[in-house]
Specification:
Radius of gyration of chain B: 28 Å
Order of helices and strands of chain A: HEEEHEEHEHHHEHEHEEHEHEEEH
Distance between the termini of chain A: 57 Å
Strand content of chain A: 25-35%
Number of helices of chain A: 11
Oligomer: heterodimer
Helix content of chain A: 40-55%
Number of helices of chain B: 16
Structural class of chain B: mainly alpha
Order of helices and strands of chain B: HHHEHHHHEHHHHHHHHH
Shape of chain B: elongated
Shape of chain A: globular
Helix content of chain B: over 70%
Number of strands of chain A: 14
Largest interface: A-B, 40 and 31 residues
Strand content of chain B: under 5%
């Protein structure tokens, strides 16, 4: 009992300190990552010398599958220890001693998650609230608030096993923001949900980012483009790009082309020499969108790059360098 | 946040847990099959009670001594009706006994004389055993309800019958509840992984000690409450019956036996199951390991060939199959204290195991 009392007092002091710091304005809601590396069993380099500053607001983390996004998220959420380098969340260094402090500051939605199927929605949140060590009064108030925010208030008596994929994701976000964390870390929140739910989830995260830091990881370029002004692109465990969305798009200028091909043989030839982003078959022709530093052929027309084009170009450059 | 909030949450979950409900149902069936005879037919009031007790196989108090004349008459009759079937069709055995009956036996012999005479003529241990059974059957008979009740009271030596039943409940419950605890406690933390909740839980500020202890205690309190509840109902029912028959009652003794025998044993075995799960990270591996360990504790004889003692330091269960009153002496107290200390050690180890399962890398900074 004495142990629990001491622990509770410790957490209480930490939360008071954090709240006080925020009020004074000396606690920046940012994440600073310096020379971060992560390798498993000293061999597989999942992250290599990452340097990032993630400011308040919505920040996107793009990268193909296996780029190291989830590993990075897991490090930030204290699930994994970095092999080397430093991470600071709201000016608190991420180390073993500070784990309880960091946990109190962050909300985390993993890529793969679920709840005990027999729990009702409000019970699931109550359970999460208990694990956040919130007192009963605050828990009850916040559960109502977040259920309103994620539009699950009227479904709160439903059991988790009755929820659709999108509703489950929204419940996941609700549990992540239940204790009003300074930093919200969401890993692929829109994976496997329909377009309406995706928009709903994106809006939720955007709203939350008004006063907090939201780190959104995704391999779906559209989601990032629709919500983030600042992004980082991870490629093979390294930061391939870190900056504004517009700057990234600018980098694609002069490298996106459109042309009309006559047959499949021409298309195959084009694919051998350039990166074909898309191809559309018509009756007598094939319209293709191409990534290339040089004009692919005489009939090619330069296009305004989209975020997807710029992202693909970036990954391609990374592969070339490698 | 108070520590018992998670405990309370776990209790609410367990009460609705299908595994717990099935276990409760099985335990109720077991208690009914084992103790209904004591609830419905003790103290003995009628011939029906006697028949029910006889049919249940619990013959301990049923028999009373016949007087010598009657015993001799019954023995004489049994020898008169002797047939080959009594020897399983073995004609040679039948002839040996028949010859002894015809040449040596006469109805004025005392039982001791019968045995001596038989031993002089017959060497076979099998036939001696046969005669012993015949003599026992001749000298004893099923008593009247008063005689049976008198038998019980004599054996109790001033103690309440409830005390005996309480000891039997303590013994059987340690065995059955240990076995039934395996699925409940092996799946307690396994469901975090099964339902992909591990990452959600591990990123919360609650530390491993509080999390594991509160959830474990929530489950334990639910389980032990069920066991205690059923035991108390059993005890009250029996005490009402005894009180109505004018017998001595002892309501408190059940609580004493629960505290001394059931609580420490269940604390130890349940946390043992949890620890084995954390060590193996697989509930399907946990089940057979715990099963073997519990069987070893129930009947050490099956493993070592040695007879079970009442108190054995290697067994967390204190067996008391006959329900004889065990004194709460120094060796009993130290045995119980040892297993309570082991419980605390194993609980601490479980917390460490839970923490190190995912975050062991933090220890290598």
């Amino acid at each position: 009992m004495l142990y629990f009392a001491n622990k509770s007092l410790g957490i209480f002091v930490i939360l008071c300190y954090v709240n006080e710091s925020i009020r004074k304005g000396d606690c920046l809601m940012s994440i600073t990552v310096q020379h971060l590396s992560k390798s498993y069993r000293g061999k597989v380099n999942v992250l290599h010398n990452m340097n990032l500053v993630i400011p308040q607001g919505m920040y996107g983390l793009l990268g193909r599958n296996g780029a190291g996004k989830t590993t990075f998220m897991r490090i930030l959420s204290t699930l994994l220890a970095p092999s080397s380098g430093t991470v600071e969340i709201s000016s608190i260094p991420l180390n073993k001693r500070n784990i309880p402090q960091i946990k109190a500051l962050i909300g985390y939605l993993p890529q793969e998650f679920n709840f005990y199927p027999n729990l009702r929605i409000d019970e699931a949140l109550d359970y999460m609230g208990i694990l956040y060590m919130m007192d009963e009064k605050k828990r009850t108030r916040r559960i109502e608030e977040v259920l309103m925010e994620v539009n699950l208030f009227h479904e709160r008596s439903k059991k988790v096993k009755q929820l659709s994929g999108g509703m489950r994701r929204r419940l996941g976000i609700a549990q992540a923001i239940l204790h009003e964390p300074q930093v919200l870390i969401v890993d692929e929140p829109t994976a496997g949900v329909d377009p309406l739910e995706r928009i709903s989830i994106r809006n939720l995260l955007s709203d939350y980012s008004k006063n907090h830091t939201v780190l959104l990881s995704s391999h779906i370029v559209e989601d990032i483009a629709a919500t983030c002004q600042q992004i980082a692109v991870l490629n093979n465990g390294q930061v391939a790009y870190n900056g504004g969305l517009k700057e990234l798009i600018k980098r694609g200028k002069g490298a996106v082309w459109s042309c009309t091909l006559q047959n499949v043989q021409e298309l195959d030839e084009m694919k051998r020499n350039h990166t074909v982003i898309s191809s559309q078959y018509f009756e007598n022709s094939i319209e293709v969108r191409i990534l290339s530093k040089q004009k692919p052929n005489t009939s090619s027309v330069a296009l305004e790059p989209s975020i997807e084009d710029a992202y693909m170009l970036l990954l391609e450059e990374g592969s070339d360098r490698k | 946040m108070r520590p018992w909030e998670l405990m309370r949450f776990e209790i609410r979950q367990q009460v609705r847990n299908p595994i717990f409900l099935i276990i409760t149902a099985i335990f109720l069936v077991f208690v009914y099959s084992e103790f209904s005879i004591y609830l419905f037919h003790y103290p003995v009031k009628s011939q029906q009670d006697i028949e029910a007790i006889s049919a249940s196989g619990r013959h301990d108090y049923l028999y009373v001594k016949r007087d010598t004349v009657e015993a001799n008459k019954v023995l004489q009759d049994s020898f008169d009706q002797l047939s080959v079937e009594d020897f399983g069709g073995n004609t040679a055995d039948y002839n040996v006994v028949r010859q002894w009956v015809d040449t040596k036996y006469h109805d004025s012999m005392t039982m001791e004389e019968v045995m001596v005479s038989f031993a002089e003529q017959v060497d076979s241990p099998r036939l001696k055993d046969f005669l012993n059974k015949r003599i026992q059957r001749a000298t004893e008979k099923i008593g009247t309800p008063e005689q049976i009740n008198n038998n019980i009271l004599q054996e109790l030596q001033g103690e309440s019958f409830a005390a005996k039943i309480s000891m039997i409940y303590g013994d059987r419950t340690q065995v059955v509840a240990s076995l039934l605890a395996i699925p409940l406690f092996a799946f307690l933390f396994a469901k975090d992984r099964r339902y992909q909740m591990t990452e959600l839980i591990r990123t919360k500020p609650m530390d491993a000690y509080r999390y594991v202890t509160c959830r474990y205690m929530g489950c334990y309190i639910t389980y032990i409450s069920m066991i205690i509840g059923i035991g108390v109902i059993l005890n009250l029912w029996l005490c009402i019956n005894l009180h109505q028959a004018g017998w001595k009652i002892d309501v408190i003794v059940m609580f004493k036996d629960i505290i001394v025998f059931i609580l420490p044993s269940m604390l130890f075995i349940t946390v043992f199951i949890v620890l084995i799960y954390f060590l193996s990270s697989n509930e399907l591996v946990t089940v057979p390991i715990c099963l073997i360990y519990i069987i070893f504790n129930i009947t050490m004889k099956a493993f070592t060939g040695k007879h079970d003692n009442d108190i054995n330091w290697f067994q967390y269960i204190i067996r008391n199959e006959d329900g004889v009153s065990l004194p709460v002496d120094w060796s009993m107290i130290s045995h119980r204290v040892l297993y309570l200390v082991l419980f605390i050690v194993l609980l601490g180890a479980s917390c460490v195991m839970w923490q190190s399962n995912k975050t062991r890398l933090w220890g290598r900074e």
